[in-house]
Amino acid sequence: MATEQAPERRWVEGAIARWASDVHIEPTSAGMYLLRVRVGGRLHPLGTLERRDGEALVQRLKVLAKLNIAERRLPQDGELLYEAADGRSYEIRLATLPTINGEKLTLRIIYPMTQYERLTELGMRPEEEDVIRRWLSADSGMVVIAGPTGSGKTTTLYTLLGLIDRRTHSVYTIEDPVEVRLSLAHQTAVNEAIGLTFETGLKALLRHDPDVIVVGEIRSKATADIVVRAALSGHLVLATVHAQDALTGIIRFFELGVEPYLVVSALRGVIGQRMRHPVCPACGGRPADCPMCRGLGVIPRPEFELYVPRPAHVPYLLDRRIEALKALLTEEAKYGDDGVDGHRRPVAAMLKKFDGFRAKENATGVKAGDEGDTGGRPSKG
Hints:
With 381 residues, this protein is an alpha/beta fold. It is built from eleven helices and 13 strands. Strands 9-8-10-11-7-12-13 form a seven-stranded mixed sheet, with helices on both faces. A six-stranded antiparallel sheet has the order 3-2-1-6-5-4, covered by helices on one side. Strand 2 and strand 3 form a beta hairpin. Residues 337-381 have low confidence and may be disordered.
């Protein structure tokens, strides 16, 4: 796409150099265009353009995405393939929005995704990976990844999928878009223009004898209902939700209208993740042309927390008393002795106690979402 002189190249290359997930091209009330990029969940300035140049850039990108350049009154969506200076090709999703200051344009950059073989490569501790592997060894239930925009949920989702032995299990995904092509997995891309939504795709793939179902993002009640019921009827389901932390990831299901008792029954565990932004040690936050932070002044890093529902927590979840539950978890964490930084992972300190509790449950025959299912799902590594 484009020659070296093309007006979009400077800005898209700058965004890719910073590993930006999104580029915002924004008309302002001052008659200028502001360009910002989202890196690690935060917006950072990329530059400004005179109004004439900004409008030309918007029009150029609309042409490349095969949108109607004459239509500025209605939103439009499209996509294009960008061939970067590094020789790689990037899929870019483009959306326009009419505003009182002019036509705004947002680009979502889809990167060739790095494949990780272990969760510790993402920043998790070995004992946390062990817990998640036990979740994945189950024959049914739901594992949810919760986090805000730009927190790396999709990377974590693909890493979980890589831990499952696809040679012996039937794996289906429904995604928007498909970001990584996987061997021995049946991947379907959402296409709402022809009626292929998350809901219709899920209903269809359930007729194909799946062992594992992967849902790119749960956005609606219909999708959430299907996911939860599939998890309760003999399927292992991996899914992401937009939320601020692990507990609000559960609440998201309630807000979508799924019965709380069904969610609690289906849930194996929740991985909460978000990005932290420590100051770059090389430039001390004064980036200039710092190669380490790529001119941002900070180095985004993911942080994780695991939440495993326990019987004592069920009344809090069913009554949606989340703040009270967080207080309970904080109190429980005080008695944990696993060396976890309570601020970074406020619920991880309960993991050892959780394992002991499960062993007691199994001995007494009490069933509360058994995590010790050894008839489980083989995994790599």
